[in-house]
Design a protein that fits this description.
Number of strands: 10
CATH topology of the largest domain: Nuclear Transport Factor 2, Chain: A
Largest sheet: 4 strands, antiparallel
Shape: elongated
Number of domains: 3
Number of helices: 9
Distance between the termini: 106 Å
Helix content: 25-40%
Order of helices and strands: HHHHEEEHHEEEEEHHHEE
Low-confidence stretches: 193-203
CATH class of the largest domain: Alpha Beta
Strand content: 15-25%
Mean pLDDT: 78
CATH architecture of the largest domain: Roll
C-alpha cells in the first residue's frame, strides 16, 4: 500500500507539493481565511457596501416612536401644490403630499433662509449626503430622525425605523397612521438650491402691476402694493400710466379693467 501511494505521488508532482509542509500550510491558511470571512461576513459586507457602493444605514434601536398625544391619519393630510421640474404642476394630497413635504424638510438647510421659520429644515441637509464614515452617518441620521419627529410632519408618523443612503438617495423608513404597511420616503440629493419647504426663493419684485380678473381701482392698488402713506396720484402721475389710463382723472375710484399693466413708483419697491 505504501509503495502504491509513493508511486502515485511520484507520478504526480502536484500531489507531492500538496502533501509537503508548504502545501499544507497554504491549504490551512486558505481554510483559515475562509473561516474568518464567514465569521465576520456581516461587517465585511457592510464595509464593502459603504466603500464600493456608497451604502450607509442607521437603524433606530429601539424604533423611534412618536410621543405626541394625537397622531392624524395620513388620509387627512391637506393638499398642496405639486412641485415638479422647478414648476408648480397641479396638486398632491394624502400620502403623496406627505412625501413631498418630508422631502422639502430634509432638503432645506436649517437657518439658511431668513424668511423661513427657525425650526424649518435640518442642519444636515448637505452633509448627510456626503459623509463617508459609518459612525458619523449614524450620528447624523439619528439627529435627522429626531428633527423629523419635532416637525409638523410628525403629525402623521407613528414610528421611524431607519434612515439609509444609497449613493445620493436618502431613504426614511417609517410607519404612517392610517396605512397598514411600512412606508419608505425617498429624498434624492439635488445640488440646485431650489426646494425650500416647497417654495422657490422669492423672485425680485417687478415694477409692473397687472390688474386681476375682477378689475381694480387706483385706491385698491395702492392699498394692495403701495407703501404706507402712499396715494393714488403717485401711481397716476407716472407718464406710462397716464398714457394707458387716459386724460386727467378726478376720481381715485376709476375702475381699471382686468389685464391693465401699470408701472409702479420706484420707492414702492424698496
Amino acid at each position: 500500500m505504501r509503495e502504491l501511494i509513493s508511486n502515485l505521488i511520484a507520478k504526480n508532482e502536484w500531489m507531492e507539493w500538496v502533501f509537503s509542509g508548504i502545501g499544507v500550510s497554504v491549504i490551512f491558511s486558505i481554510f483559515g481565511l475562509i473561516g474568518i470571512i464567514i465569521k465576520y461576513r456581516k461587517p465585511i459586507i457592510k464595509f464593502l457596501q459603504q466603500k464600493l457602493f456608497g451604502k450607509y444605514r442607521w437603524d433606530a434601536n429601539p424604533p423611534l416612536k412618536n410621543t405626541k398625544d394625537l397622531i392624524t391619519s395620513i388620509h387627512e393630510h391637506p393638499s398642496d401644490f405639486r412641485m415638479s421640474n422647478d414648476r408648480l404642476q397641479g396638486y398632491v394630497q394624502g400620502e403623496d403630499a406627505f412625501r413631498q413635504s418630508l422631502y422639502h424638510f430634509i432638503r432645506t438647510e436649517k437657518g439658511k433662509y431668513p424668511w423661513l421659520p427657525k425650526d424649518c429644515g435640518i442642519e444636515q441637509a448637505e452633509t448627510i449626503y456626503k459623509v463617508t464614515n459609518s459612525k458619523e452617518f449614524a450620528r447624523q441620521a439619528e439627529s435627522v430622525a429626531f428633527a423629523i419627529m419635532q416637525s409638523d410632519n410628525a403629525d402623521y408618523i407613528e414610528v421611524i425605523y431607519s434612515i439609509s443612503r444609497n449613493k445620493k438617495m436618502l431613504c426614511v423608513e417609517l410607519k404612517l397612521k392610517g396605512l397598514p404597511n411600512t412606508t419608505i420616503c425617498e429624498a434624492p440629493y439635488d445640488s440646485k438650491d431650489f426646494f425650500v419647504q416647497g417654495v422657490p426663493e422669492p423672485p425680485p419684485k417687478s415694477n409692473i402691476y397687472v390688474v386681476p380678473e375682477s378689475g381694480e381701482s387706483l385706491t385698491s392698488i395702492v392699498l394692495r402694493v403701495g407703501k404706507e402713506g402712499s396715494n393714488w396720484r403717485e401711481l397716476y402721475e407716472i407718464e406710462e400710466n397716464k398714457a394707458i389710463i387716459g386724460g386727467e382723472i378726478t376720481s381715485h375710484m376709476l375702475h381699471l379693467p382686468a389685464g391693465t399693466k401699470l408701472t409702479l413708483p420706484k420707492h414702492w419697491l424698496d
